[in-house]
Design goal:
This protein has 320 residues and is of the alpha+beta class. The protein folds into three domains: 3-93, Rossmann fold (3-Layer(aba) Sandwich); 102-119 and 191-318, ATP-grasp fold, B domain (D-amino Acid Aminotransferase, Chain A, domain 1, 2-Layer Sandwich), CATH 3.30.470; 123-188, Dna Ligase, domain 1 (2-Layer Sandwich). The protein contains eleven helices and 15 strands. α6 (132-142) packs across α7. The longest helix has 17 residues, at 244-260.
Length: 320
């Protein structure tokens, strides 16, 4: 008997298009002999659709055995859709609603990282737009320029900029608030190699299997921005050109953050390997699963077929 898998994709976030690609990759790679797939599209307006028609979430969720979430960004990774799945008792792969919220909130995730003993960039949290001018003044006096300006609750580097000087930094902060950011984080810029490391629970006999770290080399005139992620201009080396000691430390740190944030099933954490040490940046609870995405590349590097990984996620969700 086939397991009915609902694949959620789209969603009301700035990563709608990427989510469609992740969802399509999941749908294309779920083994047909084992799973009956239900393609559940969520519009930019938050309306759910099935078979081309709008539908109430409860109606379509009652038709599936388990959900795989191909959503990214707000609604998908901040715990909102997870609350809905929990309300209707639908098993799903990935972090629960609280773990998702915690990881998506960059300041809270940084606090957990520091409590776990990891290095993180120094930062200034700006919670209200009216505090921007005073906060940016403090940033200019405190941090070397340029600095990193980022929204607290968006993913895929959406809205992130590296910029210096009072007027440009203030303009960047005010722009984020104007675009709907709930809060803004301004961080010191840590220079070094960009790296990411994924973990998967109960894989190959390990409670938390760490995948090989990937070295990310953005274009010379860019960082690992949203455009650099998906334009094809960024080089991604897996396994990365790290020493054995650094590689093991990246794996350890990825495991540490998965546990510190209370996550489930799988995650991918981002770091900067700097002369002073390895700095934690953030954790992705629903890493991209497109052909350009990092997690599938690290799975392939250790000989785990994408189809097997998806089947593993279904089994993890059903064995909760």
């Amino acid at each position: 008997m086939q397991t009915v898998v609902g694949v959620l994709r789209g969603g009301p976030s700035r990563e709608h298009e990427v989510s469609l690609k992740s969802g399509a990759a999941i749908i294309a790679n779920l083994p047909e002999e084992r799973y009956a797939v239900r393609d559940i599209y969520i519009g930019r307006d938050g309306v759910w659709h099935y078979r081309g028609r709008s539908i109430e979430p409860e109606r379509v969720l009652r038709q599936i055995d388990v959900a795989l979430i191909g959503l990214h960004g707000e609604y998908g990774e901040d715990g909102e859709v997870q609350k809905l799945l929990e309300r209707f008792g639908v098993p799903y792969a990935g972090a629960d609603s609280f773990g998702s919220y915690l990881a998506m909130h960059k300041l809270m995730a940084k606090v957990r990282a520091r409590e776990a003993g990891l290095l993180t960039p120094e930062s200034r949290f700006i919670e209200r737009a009216e505090d921007s001018a005073e906060a940016v003044g403090e940033v200019i006096r405190t941090f070397h320029q340029p600095v990193v300006v980022k929204p607290v609750g968006w993913g895929s580097s959406v809205g992130v900029s590296i910029i210096g000087g009072y007027a440009p930094v203030l303009a960047s902060v005010e722009k984020l608030f104007a675009e709907g950011a709930s809060a803004v984080l301004v961080e010191e810029l840590i220079r070094g190699k960009e790296a990411t490391a994924g973990v998967v629970e109960n894989l190959r006999g390990e409670a938390l299997y760490a995948l090989p770290p990937i070295e990310i080399i953005p274009p010379e005139d860019d960082f690992f921005s949203y455009d650099a992620k998906y334009s094809g201009a960024t080089r991604e080396i897996c396994p990365g050109n790290f020493s054995r000691v650094v590689s093991e430390e990246l794996r350890r740190a990825a495991r540490v953050m998965h546990r510190a944030l209370g996550l489930r099933h799988y995650s991918r954490s981002d770091f900067i390997v700097a002369p002073k040490g390895i700095y934690y940046l953030e954790t992705n609870t629903l890493p991209g699963l497109t052909a350009e995405s990092l997690l599938p590349k690290s799975l392939a590097a250790v000989g785990v077929p994408f189809q097997d990984f998806l089947s593993h996620l279904v089994n993890l969700a059903l064995s909760r």
